[in-house]
Amino acid sequence: MENLMRLIKDKFEQSQVDYSSGEYVFVEIQNGLLDTIQSSKSSWYSVRAFKDKQMGSAYTNNIDDPKQILESLDISFKGKVEADFDLPGPEKLPELHNYNKAIEAVDSKVMFDISEKIYKYIKSRIEAEIATYGYKLIYENKLINSKGVNYFGKYSNSACGASLTYPEGGGRISKIFFGKGELNYSENELDKFIELFKAGLTTVNPEGGNMKALFMPESMYTLTWRLTAAAKADSVDQGVSVLKDRIGEKIFSDKITIYNDPLNEKLPMTLAFDSEGVVNKRNYLVDKGVFKNFYGNLKYCKKIGIAPTGGSSPESSANSLYLEPGNDSFDDLVSKMDKGIIVFNPLGPHSGNIPNGDFSIGTSPCLYVKNGKILGRVKDAMITGNIYEVMKNVVAVGNKAEYGEMVISPPVLFENMNVSIKK
C-alpha cells in the first residue's frame, strides 16, 4: 500500500489507498438437516485520486502490478466525476473493543452444533417448519492517504438464530442472538419466541380500519428507511428531501430518538473510521422527536454545508442505525393494545414514495390483538401511511433493541394505523 501511495502521491493533488479483507462463514439447518454451508475469504484494494476538482478511482485484489491500477485510475478520470472536497488529515482514533478473539475458534462445525441444539430445543416443544443457523464475519480495513492518515481497524460479529414458518404459506417469525465472538443463545428467549409462534397458529379474520400496530424490530426498517432517504445529504443537494430546512423541527413523537453510530459496540458494524478516512462519531438524526442533522459522505456534506458525519462507505451511508429503547416490555406493549396487529416481516417495504415518507406494506405474518390478548394470525393484511404522521402517534417503545434489517430497534407501538384486512 505504501509503495502504491508513493507512486501516485506526487501525480495527483490528493490520493487515498484503502485495503479491506473479509472472512464469512454461514451454516443453516432446515428441519434438522444440513441445508447450507458457505465460506468465503476475500480482500481488495481501492484507490482514489483527485485533481482539478475531479476524482478517479480503481479497484483490484492484486497490487503486485501497480502499472495496471495506475492505468485504470487514469482512464477513470474520463468520467469527470465531480469531487470538490478535501480528504481529512490524521486524528486520534477512538478506542474500541470491537474484535473478539474467541471468534477465531468458531468454524462451520461449531455453527452446525449450535444450530442443531437450537433446532432440537424448539422441536421438543413444537411441531413446525424450523430453520436454524449460525454465522461469523471478520473484517479488516487499512486506509492511508496523502494527508498523513494511516489507520487500521478490525471487527468481528457473529450470530445464531431460528425462524419458524406458519403452515400454508402463512409467513414466518425469527429470533436472532447477536454477538461479537462465541455463539450463545438463551433458552428463556427461545421459550418466549415459541409461545409467540403458537399464538399465531389459530387464524382469525377481524375487521380492518384504524387500529394500533406493534412493529417488531425486523419490520421497523420500513419506517426508518424513509427517514434515512430524506436525511441523506445527497437527497438535500438534489432537491428531493422533505427534510430540507427542517433541522430543529419536531417531526416525530418525543419517544423517538434515532442516530447513526459506527462506534456503538452493540451493533454489528463497528469501526473507528469510515472508507473516506473520516473518524466516526455518533450522529443524531432525530432526538426526542426533533430532527437534528443530515448524514453524508465528504462530497455531499460539503455541498449542503455541514460538517463530515462519518460512517460512509464511501457513498453516503447510515449502516449503524440505532433506535433508542424505551421502558416497556413486549408484554407491556401488547397489554396496551385494545385492538391492533403485531407486524413481523413486511411485504413490499420498497412500495410507496420512499423520499416522501409514504409506505404501503403487506404483512407476513401479523398477529391480531384485542383487549391485550393475542387471538391469532391474520392471513392477509396491508398497512399504509406516511412516517411523518405515523411516527407522531407513538404509544410506547419497547425496552430492548434487537437486530433488524437496516436498523437496531426495539418494538414500537403506534396508534391510528390504517390497516386493511382481506375478507
Task: Provide a descriptive summary of the structure in words.
The chain is α+β, with helices and mostly antiparallel strands and 423 residues long. It folds into two domains: 2-193, 2-Layer Sandwich (PmbA/TldD fold), CATH 3.30.2290.10; 200-423, no CATH class. It is built from nine helices and 23 strands. The protein has helices spanning 2-9, 66-76, 108-123, 187-199, 221-231, 233-237, 298-304, 330-335, 387-390; strands at residues 14-30, 33-51, 54-60, 81-82, 129-145, 150-165, 172-179, 203-204, 209-215, 258-260, 283-287, 290-291, 321-323, 339-343, 346-347, 358-363, 366-370, 373-378, 381-386, 394-397, 402-404, 407-409, 412-421. The strands form four sheets. Strands 8, 9, 14, 15, 16, 17, 18, 19, 20 and 23 form a ten-stranded mixed sheet that branches. The protein has a seven-stranded antiparallel sheet with strand order 4-3-2-1-5-6-7. Strands 12-11-10-13 form a four-stranded antiparallel sheet, with no helix packed on it. β21 and β22 (407-409) form a beta hairpin. The mean pLDDT is 95.
**What is the average of the pLDDT values?**
95
What fraction strand? 35-45%
**Integer count of domains:** 2
What is the helix content? Answer: 10-25%
Summed up, the helix count is 9
Integer-rounded radius of gyration: 24 Å
Biggest sheet, in brief? 10 strands, mixed
Q: What would you call the shape?
A: globular
Structural class, by secondary structure, is alpha+beta
What is the number of strand segments? 23
N-C termini distance: 63 Å
Specify the oligomeric state: single chain
Query: Stretches where pLDDT falls below 50 for ≥5 residues?
Result: none
